[in-house]
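Below is a typical protein record.
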Amino acid sequence: MISKLVDSVSDALTGISDGACVMVGGFGLAGQPRHLIEGLLDHGATDLVIVSNNAGNGDTGLAALLKHGRVRKVVCSFPRQVDSWVFDELYHAGKIELELVPQGNLAERIRAAGAGIPAFYTPTSFGTILAEGKETRTFNGVNTVLQEAIYADVALVSAHTADTWGNLVYRKTSRNFGPIMVTAATTSIVQVKKVVDVGDLDPESVVTPGIYVDRVVVPEGIN
């Protein structure tokens, strides 16, 4: 029987190379795969492109990756928050690139990649600096901007429960970007609080089918 379960975070992160594009789930701290991010810091990959809702909080998690110089570029919707001092310092020093994407566009660009749609038109950002250099068209009197799908080499996601095949159940708002990110990445790595046998999950509760998941890990010390 196929099992996606791996023994440790370090095993789960095997193969992530320098320069990889890494999607990281989470809405702020909700649903953030903290153990996988910490493992990525230990892993040592550098020159990374991070796709996430925000650019890190405080000095831990994503912010720690930035602080240690592992990230070349951030693609996100909310780079600045009350505790985003690491990103702020790096950005104003010209040490990191930023692609600012409205949140709805970010979600749809990721979803489109998973659905095999290379680009789509949306009115969001038309007439702003975010649309500069992009193709525009008018549909039924509505001005729109062409947005390209975002693909990733790796997705790091947090879920609540998985079975050994990688079928996933999320908990409340921690679900956020996880379900679309795992569809848009070549390799999807998921941290969970517990793993059950195949057949123990209610099929009606499964949000992410295991076909989209490559590796599942229960990090040591997760609660």
Summary: The chain has a mean pLDDT of 94. The CA atoms of residues 126 and 132 lie 9 Å apart.
